[in-house]
Design a protein that fits this description.
binds zinc ion; about 25% strand; 10 helices; about 500 residues; alpha+beta; 5-stranded mixed beta sheet; Collagenase (Catalytic Domain); Jelly Rolls
Length: about 500
């Protein structure tokens, strides 16, 4: 199949440019950036695109956003983004009806047999990021690419169709943020009508074009295939790993839209990874552990620290005192990349920001361990960290560099802790809590049976006395030894006396 151009066009340029020259304009725009290598695919890295949409506002890149999309009614005027002329009235709906069938017809476009392809295309970007895409059924038909989105009136991202250059060369073009509008070439009926792989030709085109719509320019690689390359390649489906990184640069990872858009920046808002069973592991970000930039079109487990303003908290639960190991691995991979027209050079997306990991106690405040021993591109590990008892603990990840870093976090139970006989509440240490349990069980039941004789009695208290303040050898610094004076008083008055907990 002959290669086809996919173009983005600059919305804010004082003069429109012809599509073949597009890459030069965007390259010039790029040079304003802080680091052309790190941001090769991103337009104006210091600018917050889509700070305001029809659905709300946000203050920084990495924050979530809601973007609505609508399909303009046929007959809507479609300017030519390349030269200031006009491509004529949109004929997208009639074109798609001709290619795919009209289904029941009518004004409810969600009933069209082709509608799901648009929904899936925007939805794919959404499930990979903090962006939420909502179909806006209204579109008032004002001239395409000239007006902003308004709820109930038109989408933030308006999709039109017009004859651009027929069955060759350009497939579509898209305006950069905060315009975001898309034009598909209705002269490419054969190409877009290809049903292979759930109409991947059309979906990849929509996904590529919308990549421009939220702020990506073309990228070229000679080691991997990427969605945002200038020529379409339908051998893969949708965004690849570097494009996951790119969309998360703008909108954060999918957890950033949790908690009503507050994200997971505090322990109280932590993303719950669930319970770690003995001998098992919980984790997040594993879909980024791939040998190249290729990712499955159904993979969704990608997380990142987007910039210095981002903190990610995770909660995890253990059912008893235990030891865990934690590994925080930066992801993204190494590949060659360049801006459009440039010569691709090696780029290490795994070595963008130096991440650190902190584990907090069940209160979400007390630090149990923190590790930042390595720099960019190298994993941080914690081995044999003791958790003093059952409960929900927290892991926090931050970055030291003001750019996005994909990562994978793995938490594994290394050892179950063997409890001392008088550790009646199995929290990893023998203390006044255990004494209180013994007091309650004295002569009543076997809850405080330290010597295994089936009762809770004075002999069990003697075991508690011998073990108080002790911990198993591999529990670190969690126990609080009782003062000896308190123990002596207990001996005199047990079981009626209890030390006050400190
Ligand atoms: Zn393009």
């Amino acid at each position: 199949m002959e290669p086809r151009w996919l173009c983005g066009t600059e919305t804010d340029a004082p003069m429109f440019i012809r599509r073949p020259l597009l890459g030069f304009l965007l390259t010039a725009t790029l040079s304003i950036g802080l680091s052309p290598v790190a941001f090769a695919f991103i337009i104006n890295p210091g600018v917050v695109h889509w700070a305001t949409t029809a659905s709300g506002s946000r203050t920084a890149n990495g924050d979530p956003a809601t973007l609505t999309w609508s399909i303009v009614p046929d007959g809507t005027s479609v300017p030519d983004g390349s030269n200031g002329g006009n491509l004529g009235p949109s004929d997208l709906i009639a074109f798609l009806d001709g290619d795919f069938g009209a289904g029941p017809g009518g004004s409810d476009l969600t009933q069209r047999p082709w509608f799901h392809l648009f929904e899936e295309s925007f939805g794919r970007w959404g499930e990979l990021s903090g962006a939420t895409y909502v179909y806006e059924p209204a579109d008032d038909g004002l001239t395409h690419s000239t007006v902003s989105g308004v709820l109930g009136v038109r989408g933030d991202l308006r999709i039109a169709g017009a004859f651009i250059d027929g069955a060759s060369s350009t497939l579509a073009f898209n305006y950069l943020p905060d315009n975001g509008d898309m034009v598909l070439d209705t002269g490419d009926g054969t190409f877009f009508g290809n049903a292979t792989n759930n109409h991947r030709a059309l979906r990849d085109t929509i996904m590529h074009e919308h990549g421009h719509g939220f702020g990506l320019q073309h990228v070229e690689s000679n080691t991997d295939n990427l969605l945002m390359e200038p020529f379409i390649n339908t051998s893969f489906d949708g965004p690849q790993l570097d494009e996951v990184r790119a969309v998360q640069f703008y909108f954060g990872d999918a957890n950033e839209k949790s908690n009503g858009g507050l994200g997971n920046d505090t322990a109280a808002l932590a993303t719950d990874l669930g319970t770690i069973a003995l001998g098992s592991m919980v984790g997040v970000g594993s879909d980024a552990d791939v040998p190249s930039q290729f990712i499955s079109p159904t993979a969704t487990d990608f997380v990142s620290i987007t910039n210095l303003g981002d903190t990610d908290f995770y909660a995890f639960t253990v059912s008893q005192a235990t030891q865990i190991s934690a590994t925080l691995t930066p992801r993204g991979g190494q590949f060659n990349q360049a801006s459009e027209g440039g010569t691709p050079t090696p780029f290490d997306a795994s070595a963008r920001s130096d991440l650190s990991l902190t584990i907090f106690d069940t209160n979400g405040i007390s630090v149990l361990a923190s590790v930042d021993q390595t720099g960019q591109g190298v994993a941080e590990t914690l081995a044999g960290l003791s958790l003093p008892g059952a409960g929900q603990y927290f892991a926090r990840i931050v970055g030291a560099d003001d750019t996005i870093q994909l990562y994978e976090l793995e938490l594994t139970i290394a050892n179950a802790i063997t409890f001392l006989e008088a550790d009646f509440n199995t929290d990893g240490n023998v203390d006044d809590q255990d004494l209180a349990i013994w007091q309650a069980a004295f002569g009543v039941n076997a809850t405080a049976d330290a010597n295994g004789d089936g009762t809770s009695d004075g002999a069990d208290f003697l075991v508690w006395q011998q073990q108080v303040g002790s911990t198993p050898p591999f529990v670190s610094s969690q126990s609080v030894p009782e003062p000896s004076s308190c123990i002596l008083l207990i001996l005199a008055a047990a079981p009626l006396f209890a030390c006050r907990r400190r």
